[in-house]
Amino acid sequence: MRSSSSFLAPAALAFALAAALPASAQAAQAELTIDVATHTVPGMPGLGALGRLSGAMGGASPSYGMARHPGMPGRYMDVALHNRAAPGQPARQAVPKGLQLGNSIDLLPPGDAPAASNDSAPPDALGQAGDGKFRIHYYWGCGDQVRAGQPAEYAVTIRNGKMVTTGRAMLPRQVPQAGVEPGPRHALWPNPSARKAVGGKASLVGTHAVTGEALPASMQFELGRDHDFLPELKLRSEGDAAKGPSLRWDGVDGARAYFIHGTAMDGETIVMWSSSEDGYAGHELMDFLPEQLVTQWTGKRTLMNADARSCRIPPGVFTGSGGSGAPMLQIIAHGNERSITQSGWSVRVRSKSTAMLMPGGGAGASPGEVAKPAAKEAAKGLLRGLIGR
To answer: Which of 3, 6, 274, 287 has the least C-beta neighbours within 10 A?
Structure first.
């Protein structure tokens, strides 16, 4: 049985985060949340018109939620308005010319159809993996050798799409809910009427103003370069998995911290690794994080600091018994968070830049090779299920 403290800690942290906000922000009549993300996939640069569809595969329109977990390369923006005086009513946001979306965007309620999102695994992810027993090997930390006590090992049995874990499974980091769970009380962008996605050179810099039923007339704000889209995160892998590859990246202006996660699958063994220096950290750190947690976890070396430019995966992590060679790697640069609070309204802007390096997806790989379905994609879906995403 889990101790009571394991339940109290996340609640206490969430309370502390809420208490840190001014009282006017907690009770604002209108709350606007803007999440922006930049995503790259080495070997899949741009992809022309497809790459500009804001991560939408197969010609689908951009939709709210894609900024949290982008798929295709590009820039993404999610805007959510909660107007307590007129919940779920349409609104209009005037935007700067640099955003390249015209003079304004329409914020609309989600309607009857749920917003599409890359936030969760496909419904049949466990079914794709098939029934059977899978071993999990988990490593962490950058360096020239595997640390004592690693890997952590446990097993997962899947039967008829249901999962049973045996052994000491690693628990995800507790991240307070800091994002918007859109519902009928919100007005969103993108939405089904949005005909244009965010372009690769889009910028938030400039004046924004939100108007609509029962909204404060003063809801206008300025955004500067410190709270714009982050630059692309250019991740490179040097050396082979057998000798412990060195991961290197160019610094991202505006980044406050970095984190890397790797996944590989060989038969019935799933191998995971992260750059965290203080134990398990998984895919939950690839999302937007509260600014307080970024500061706290950078101090504890869960996240790498803003000066980090390299990390070596210890030799043997992705080779040998249970290893599968080159892993799928994900890296995130956590950006700044901007909070603006005025009488009757508040705005929060969050930014991140991410990159995914697929096995064999170096600079010379074609988009088809990088995007080709493989067993590792089934492993990715399985892992998302393991961590409850």
So the answer is: 3
Residue tagged 């249970």 (tokens) = 322
CA R_g for the chain: 21
In the numeric block, the tokens 């930390």 are attached to 141
CA-based nearest residue to 329, from 302, 362, 352: 362
Beta bridge partners of 188: 80, 108
- Give per-residue pLDDT as tens, 92-128: 999 999 999 999 999 999 974 444 444 433 333 334 4
Report, as ranges of residue numbers, the positions in the chain whose pLDDT lies below 70: 1-27, 43-60, 112-130, 178, 242, 320-325, 360-389
Token pair in block for residue 230? 């982050």
Give the pTM. Answer: 0.81
Looking from the CA of 310 toward its CB, the CA atoms found within 13 Å total 10
